[in-house]
Specification:
single chain; 135 residues; mainly alpha; 6 helices; 76% helix; globular
């Protein structure tokens, strides 16, 4: 690997931990934003770990397609397609929490956190790698 990319995984984990904290504080917009940042960085970490660099994009669909290609695992992109609403809501969190006054509810934040945990479990099982996000 041409670069040390562990920092991406560490930052992803920190964004995830921060999202849990923000949820407890009732700050649902930033909770969702932090989940999206965690997701982006986690995918970029996995890609970079495999190919030595990561795509310079914020779009989860492009990142998931790149991840699927990097590991030559069609089921990764199929996971994206089967869970497109989840990824779309995460993308909304990235753009709207920064630029628009769209509030995120407790219920939506709970759903995003639950689906993100499923996504992490899917990645661990599919890529046979422990990500240690359950700290």
């Amino acid at each position: 690997m041409s670069k040390n990319v562990e920092f991406l995984k560490e930052k992803s984990s920190r964004f995830y931990s921060n999202s849990l904290y923000l949820f407890q504080k009732g700050d649902y917009d930033l909770c969702a934003f932090n989940l999206e940042q965690s997701c982006q960085l986690l995918i970029k970490y996995l890609i970079a770990k495999r190919v030595g660099e990561w795509p310079k994009t914020h779009y989860l669909e492009i990142l998931m397609k790149s991840l699927s290609e990097a590991y030559d695992r069609v089921e990764i992109y199929n996971y994206y397609l089967e869970n497109e609403l989840f990824f779309s809501d995460l993308s909304d969190a990235y753009f709207t929490s920064r630029y628009f006054p769209k509030p995120f509810t407790k219920s939506l934040s709970e759903t995003l956190m639950r689906e993100y945990k499923k996504f992490i479990s899917f990645l661990e099982a599919t890529l046979d790698e422990k990500l240690d996000f359950d700290k």
